[in-house]
Amino acid sequence: MKIKQIIPIVLLAIFSVGCESVQPISANTQSIILKTPEHRPTVLGGSVDFPVGVYAPDFQTVEGTYYKAPTMIIWNALGTHRPRRGGLFIPRPDAKDKEQGAWLDQEEDSGLLSMGASSTTRLWRFSEPVLYEIQTNTP
User: Which of 35, 74, 92, 128 has its CA 20 to 30 A from that of 48?
Assistant: First the structure.
């Protein structure tokens, strides 16, 4: 094979690896409200702090809905406390894995070479659920 024939095949493989079944938010999906700050453990002794406020539905997958925090969440790891874009993942009622999770938007850290090679969203699940209320639309 010539190099000109290989390049499109390699590029297609790279860009299809990170594809996930991301869907637009359903019209009836409401925002959620955290009335108190929440702190949850993540991996390797790390933790995440969720701020108080209204979390708007950002996107969904077959597993659940990703709600974007009203301000940055704080990712605590190895003695650092780093503000990150992300929010709270709520699984669908019929999902196999019922654990909620913290998600981070990794796009701020990605470069041109990693674009499409992996998902820009990372999810860390935790066992103790975050308490929230569903925002009702009042006139």
Answer: 92
The residues pairing with 50 across neighbouring beta strands, listed in sequence order, are 38
Condensed to tens digits (0 to 9), the pLDDT of residues 27-56 reads 899 999 999 999 999 888 899 999 999 999
Domain residue ranges of the chain, discontinuous segments joined by +: 3-134
pLDDT band at 87 (very low <50, low <70, confident <90, very high): very high
Residue 22 sits at the vertex; the CA angle it makes with 30 and 52, to the nearest 5 degrees, is 40
Q: What is the C-alpha separation between 52 and 71, in angstroms, rounded?
A: 9
Structure tokens at 106: 């990794």
Residue 11 has φ and ψ, to the nearest 5°, of -60, -40
Q: How is the beta sheet containing 47-50 ordered, strand by strand?
A: 38-41, 47-50, 73-77, 80-84
Of 4-8, 23-27, 86-90, 114-118, which range is least confident? 114-118
The pLDDT value recorded for residue 70 is: 98
Burial class (CB in 10 A: 0-12, 13-18, 19+), 66: buried
- Tell me the whole-structure pTM to 2 decimals: 0.77
For residue 112, is it left (φ>0), alpha (ψ between -120 and 50) or beta? alpha
